[in-house]
Write a structure and sequence with these properties.
The protein is an alpha/beta fold and 79 residues long. It contains three helices and three strands; from the N terminus they run H-E-H-E-H-E. A three-stranded parallel β-sheet has the order 1-2-3, with helices on one face. Helix 2 links the parallel strand 1 and strand 2. It is elongated and about 55 Å long. The mean pLDDT is 85.
Amino acid sequence: MVGMAVPYVITSTALGNKNKLPASERVTLAHIGTGGRGTYLLNCCQGPRTQSIAVADCYADRREVAAATIVGKGYVDFC
């Protein structure tokens, strides 16, 4: 039987730093619908323990503004 040692690769963002918590301490969010209530929730959910990474909205103007706000990706459909 031959054993093989494989080094584990951990990215620096996973471990965190002084400006960002480690990945195990953050909640990752995606937002569906960024109209009135959706924008309110998107803004309320921003904090040191949350990370918004995507938005989905069928209206291009809302989608682009929300994606720029979270510095994430915008999608036309949530599927």
